[in-house]
Amino acid sequence: MEWTDQKETLTFEERAKELVSKMTLEEKVFQTLHSAAKIERLGIPAYNWWNEAIHGVARAGVATVFPQAIGLAATFDEDFIEEVGDTISTEGRAKFNMQQQFGDFDIYKGLTFWAPNVNIFRDPRWGRGHETFGEDPYLTGRLGVRFIAGMQGHDKMYLKVAACAKHFAVHSGPEDLRHSFNAIVSEKDLYETYLPAFKACVTEGHVEAVMGAYNRTNGEPCCGSKTLLTDILRGQWGFKGHVTSDCWAIRDFHEHHMVTKTPVESVALAMNSGCDLNCGNIFGNLLVAVRDGLVSEETLTKAVERLFTTRMKLGMFDDKEKVPYSAITYDQVDGDAQKKLNLKAAKKSIVLLKNEGGILPLKKESIHTIGVIGPNANSRKALIGNYEGTASEYITVLEGIKEQAGEDIRVYYSEGCHLYKDRVSALGTPNDRIAECKAIAEASDVIIACFGLDAGLEGEEGDQGNEFASGDKPDLNLPGIQEQVLKTLYESGKPVILVLLSGSALAISWEDEHLPAIVEAWYPGAQGGRAVASMLFGEYSPEGKLPVTFYRTTEELPDFTDYSMKDRTYRYMKKEALYPFGYGLTYSEFFVKDVRVSGKTMEAGDVLTVKAVLENAGDYDGAQTVQVYVKAKGVEGAPNYQLKGLKKIWVPKNTAKEVMITLPDRAFGLYDDEGRLVLHKGEYEVYTGISQPDERSMTLLGRKPMVTRIQCEKEAILEDRFRK
User: Fold this and answer.
1) Number of other CB atoms surrounding residue 9 within 10 Å
2) Is the peptide bond preceding residue 495 cis, with omega within 30 degrees of 0?
């Protein structure tokens, strides 16, 4: 072996530079592919960079399948998200250590996980929205930073695993156009909505990798965008890690975006713009690109140095006893502790949307029969979402209810209808389970209706079995004949509790008007059915909050391809929501009182402290999220208000706790048309409560957030991308 590694005296970056200096041009080129070849003479093993873990280690056998990312977002709990990330990375390390022992270097077997997805879920029709943390830049950023902390660990020297913020940037559908689509976005929307979560992941979370998106942004393909990768990511934010392309995205440059003419030109554009790693094989053309002078060997060398710096941070070239994470053993995969945490995650993610007359929780002593009806009642697919692992145990909603009901309550079951077709049996007549539904409704004291979607109806373009072809939803309605069956159940006169399993908002105005209770369970993970049943029977008080707006109709949304934030999300919508962002009921009674803000004025450099008392005056111990929103008064084009602080706390019944949230000057700043963050002169309102300060939330909850007025006497530029 030619290479001698000076482990004791050099930094990881210096060691990577020394190692890469020993490589030939060809060896360097083939290290830029996701399936990096071994270099035997230098003692470098093969390595596959491609791995997934947005809600658990995916696609590599058994691992904990947590609730899908949108469900984790509904916890509104930063601390808990880090705990989940830590558990995922523990399992990732344990599986990697085992796989290495047995010589398994396959895809999905490495330590570089392409998660989290911090794109903004700007339109509920987007099929991949359930992979994200929702529609709000602040919430997405906070959860992204803490997920990364859990994934990458806190060792002073080594990474536990390498996380990756994706898909950079301005990416949220349509799926069927993503290979050729040009997302046109203003500087204001770019810096205010689409970039903040990525910036937080880079500057606060110190994420090791960033993945480029498929689409173009303002004419530049994202994986070859000088603006995004060079000027913003590395220039403005000082990113030191590596950039990977999305899979086969660079091929799109010449095949679909038509910004280059040949594969060689495409790889040159990507590499010169700052893309270091190619998910795919087109970077093999770098041999020609360097030979023909389209890419300097120095640029290639720098990319490979970044890649090997990451591998060295992961301890791949050090003695195992020096790398603390090498001691994680396989018995830490999918054990009792992981199952317990997964159940907790599912419980924390469930959002109670309606509970008329306190019909929930159900009281076992007054129930003899329960009808569980619907295509998602006994569906494992509706538990897991996409980019999923394999659980050793799945508990569907039906199974969870049977477990809860015990021997004294009879549980009837019917699939009710197909998820999206008009019949269950191919040879049957339309609505071929309706007689069974009527019979069960007649025999039941209460009906649990389990409807919604699954990852076969909303997901990524090209996903196997994706029934809507592109993965996006055509509208926000319940698919097929689901609503027709629900109306039949309602007409039975029996109380109907609707449990939605979905990864996105649905237009359920009829259901809201007619049904006494509605629960949004998302794709709640392998333990999801147990969590749903436990909530229905009152073993705990629900605490989830909506990370997305539930609109009333598809018609009120702008065109799907319009990336302007006008009329989108709670921050800019003008019409009243069905269920607002940040909303969610509990079984207890929470009040925010004694709100104190540390000052009445704000200037550049100031930090305000918001203190409040959260009182639980109800009959259940439970958790509640205190939310702080800021509204700029009198500024043209300003958002309605924006979430700028949150804290989830546990409060036993009949007690109160104080919560403290800080608001830096940035919380009051607004981006202008030049992408500058401006603290405007004038009045601001700070709202502190358990919801956003919209009329619909106040009506649904029966209480208002407390408002504090803050005055700014002097305009200031807090951030200017043109100013060094």
Assistant:
1) 7
2) no
- Please tell me the pTM assigned to this model: 0.97
The pLDDT of residue 2 is: 47
Give me the active site residues, please.
246, 458
Check whether residue 255 and residue 358 sit in a common domain.
Answer: no
Domain of 206, in residue numbers: 12-318
Q: Which of 178 and 464 is assigned the larger pLDDT?
A: 178
* Sheet of 410-414, strand order: 351-355, 517-520, 496-501, 446-452, 369-373, 410-414
DSSP assignment of 674-714 equals TS-EEE-SEEEEEEEESS-S-HHHHHHHT---EEEEEEE-S
Is the peptide bond preceding residue 667 cis, with omega within 30 degrees of 0?
A: no
81, 150 Cβ separation under 8 angstroms: yes
- 431-450, pLDDT tens digit by residue? 999 999 999 999 999 999 99
371 with 487, same domain: the answer is: yes
Is residue 327, in this structure, part of any structural domain at all?
Answer: no
For the domain that residue 661 is a member of, what is the CATH number? 2.60.40.10
Distance CA 657, CA 670 (A): 32
Hey, what are 686's tokens?
Answer: 């700070």
Q: Are residues 147 and 182 in the same domain?
A: yes
Whether 87 maps to a domain, the answer reads yes
Between CA 83 and CA 73 the distance in angstroms is 13
Name the CA dihedral angle for 168, 172, 175, 181, rounded to a multiple of 10 degrees.
Answer: -70
| Residue 523 in domain | yes
**Cβ atoms of 580 and 546 closer than 8 Å:** yes
- 333 CB contacts (<8 Å, ≥6 apart)? 62, 63, 64, 91, 94, 95
Q: What are 181's two structure tokens?
A: 């689509």
- The residue with tokens 């209460």 is 446
d(CA 47, CA 32): 11
- Kind of pairing between the strands at 446-452 and 410-414: unpaired
- The number of folded domains in the chain is 3
Q: Report pLDDT digits (tens) over 317-354.
A: 999 999 999 999 999 999 999 999 999 999 999 999 99
